[in-house]
Design brief:
By secondary structure, the chain is of the alpha+beta class. The protein is built from twelve helices and ten strands. It is globular. The two termini are about 30 Å apart. Bound molecules: flavin-adenine dinucleotide (FAD).
Length: about 400
C-alpha cells in the first residue's frame, strides 16, 4: 500500500544491539573524560586509550565476527562515534582512521589472505591502523600527491612523504596511496594511482608527531616518510590503478564517522550550555531566561536533531548496501559546520569562563575547527553539494560496496 520505497523500511527505533553499542561507547568515553582533558592540556597522546578501546571491542565495530570484529551494523558505528566525540574528538578520530578509513576499506577491497593477515588483528584491536593520502603539498587536491611506488620484480619501491596523518606515530598498519604510473601522474589521470598496505618496521619507513596543533591535542597526528621502502606486491590493495577509487571509498566511510561524531560534539555543547545558562545569573535572572541565550540554545538543539538525521540516513544507506557518497558528504559538511557553530556559541554562553580550560567548551571549539579541514574541507564539500544540486555530478553504481551487516 505504501508506495514510498524508504517508508517501508525506515525505523527510528534503535535495536537492542544498537542501544548496547551506544551505552558501551558512552560508558567507555565517560571513563576517559578526565584523561583526555589532561592529555589535551599537555598535548600528549595516551596509548592506554587504544588499549581500552581494543578491550571494549570498539576497534572491531562493524567488522564481521569471522574477521575478529563485533559484527555490528553501520548505525552502531555512528552511535559509537557520537558518544566518543561527546567527550573528546580524539577518541572519535581513532574510530575514523582505524575503522572507517582503514578496516572497512580492507574489508571491502581486500583479498581473503589480506583480510586474515591485516584485518583480523585490527578488528581484535591487536594492531592499530591508519590511512595516508595527504602530503605536505597536497590535501584537497589528491591528484597532486608526489609519493610514487615503482614496480621492481615482485616488489614495489615506495618513496615520498605523508603529512597530517592521524595516529601516524602510534599506528602499526598504514593504508597508503601512491602513484604507480608516472606517465598518468603527469597527466593527472587518477587511474595511475594504487593503494598499499604497509606495516611499521618496514625498512625506510619513519614516522613523526606534529606538535603545536590547535585541536585534537589529545590525539596523535604526524607524518610518515618512505625512503625506498620495499613493499611486496602482495601488499597491493585492489588492482594496480584502483588507488584513487579506494582512497575515495575509504573517505566515504571516514566522513561518516566524522559526521556522526560532530553530532556528539553539538550535544556536548548543548548540554554544557543548558547547565551553565541555568546557574549563571545576570541582571537578576539566570541567563537562560534571556532571549538571545535561548536563541543559541535553540540553534544547538535543532542542529543536533538535523545532523543526527543526516548521518542516520547515510548509515541506513550503508546498511542497505547502497551508494551514499552524496548523503555522507552532506552529513559531514552540515554536521561539521553546525558543530563549529555550536562550539562557538557554547563558549559565548559561558562568557569569560568559556574562554578557559576550566570548562570543556573551549576544547570543543578548538576541536570543531579541525573537522572543517579534514575528510574533505568545508569548501570541498560545498563544491560537491553544489555540483550534485546543479546536476554536474551524480553517484554512479560502483564495483565495490560495503558488505551489508551480518
Ligand atoms: C587533525 C587532522 C587530522 C588529519 N588526519 C588525516 C589522516 O589521517 N589521513 C590523511 O590522509 N589526511 C589527514 N588530514 C589531512 C586533511 O585531510 C587535509 O588537511 C585536508 O584534505 C585539506 O588539505 P590541506 O590541508 O592540504 O589544505 P588545501 O588542500 O591546501 O586547502 C587550503 C584551503 O583552500 C581550500 N580549497 C582547496 N581547494 C579548493 C577549491 N577547489 N575551491 C575552494 N577552496 C579550496 C580548502 O578548503 C582550504 O580552506 C588531517 C588533517 C588534520 C588537520
Amino acid at each position: 500500500m505504501n508506495e514510498h520505497p524508504e517508508a517501508k523500511t525506515v525505523d527510528f527505533n534503535l535495536t537492542e544491539d544498537q542501544l548496547m553499542v551506544q551505552s558501551l561507547a558512552r560508558e567507555f568515553a565517560s571513563r576517559q573524560a578526565a584523561t583526555v582533558k589532561q592529555c589535551d592540556e599537555t598535548a600528549c597522546f595516551n596509548r592506554d586509550l587504544l588499549t581500552g578501546m581494543a578491550e571494549s571491542g570498539l576497534l572491531g565495530l562493524s567488522i564481521p565476527s569471522r574477521y575478529g570484529g563485533t559484527g555490528n551494523d553501520y548505525i552502531s558505528l555512528g552511535l559509537a562515534c557520537e558518544e566518543l566525540e561527546y567527550v573528546d574528538t580524539a577518541l572519535r578520530v581513532v574510530m575514523s582512521v582505524h575503522v572507517g578509513l582503514n578496516s572497512l576499506t580492507l574489508l571491502s577491497w581486500g583479498t581473503e589472505e589480506q583480510k586474515q593477515r591485516w584485518l583480523v588483528p585490527q578488528a581484535k584491536g591487536e594492531k592499530v591502523a591508519t590511512y595516508g593520502l595527504t602530503e605536505p603539498a597536497a590535501g584537497s587536491d589528491a591528484l597532486g600527491i608526489q609519493t610514487v611506488a615503482r614496480r621492481n620484480g615482485s616488489e614495489y619501491v615506495l618513496s615520498g612523504e605523508k603529512m597530517w596523518i592521524s595516529l601516524a606515530d602510534v599506528a602499526d598498519h598504514f593504508l597508503v596511496i601512491a602513484w604507480t604510473d608516472l606517465e598518468k601522474k603527469k597527466r593527472r589521470d587518477h587511474t595511475g594511482m594504487s593503494a598499499f598496505l604497509l606495516e611499521r618496521g618496514m625498512k625506510g619507513m619513519t614516522t613523526t608527531t606534529i606538535h603545536g596543533k590547535l585541536g585534537v591535542r589529545a590525539g596523535n597526528t604526524g607524518s610518515v616518510s618512505f625512503d625506498d621502502v620495499r613493499v611486496p606486491a602482495a601488499n597491493l590493495l585492489g588492482h594496480e590503478g584502483e588507488g584513487f577509487r579506494i582512497a575515495m571509498f575509504a573517505i566515504d566511510q571516514g566522513r561518516y564517522t566524522v559526521a556522526a561524531g560532530s553530532t556528539g560534539l553539538i550535544r556536548a555543547c548543548l548540554d554544557a550550555s543548558v547547565e551553565y545558562a541555568q546557574i549563571r545569573t545576570t541582571f537578576g535572572k539566570p541567563i537562560a531566561e534571556h532571549q538571545l541565550i535561548k536563541e543559541m540554545i535553540a540553534e544547538m538543539a535543532s542542529d543536533y536533531e538535523a545532523c543526527r538525521l543526516l548521518w542516520l540516513k547515510a548509515g541506513w544507506l550503508k546498511n542497505e548496501g547502497k551508494r551514499n557518497t552524496r548523503e555522507t558528504s552532506l552529513a559531514k559538511f552540515y554536521g561539521c559546520a553546525a558543530a563549529e557553530r555550536a562550539a562557538s556559541n557554547a563558549v559565548q554562553v559561558h562568557g569569560a569562563y568559556g574562554f578557559s580550560s576550566e570548562y570543556n567548551v573551549e576544547r570543543f571549539y578548538r576541536n570543531a575547527k579541525g573537522a572543517q579541514i579534514y575528510e574533505g574541507s568545508r569548501e570541498i564539500h560545498k563544491l560537491l553539494q553544489a555540483d550534485y544540486a546543479l546536476g554536474l555530478r551524480t553517484d554512479k553504481p560502483i564495483r565495490v560496496t560495503l558488505p551489508r551487516p551480518e
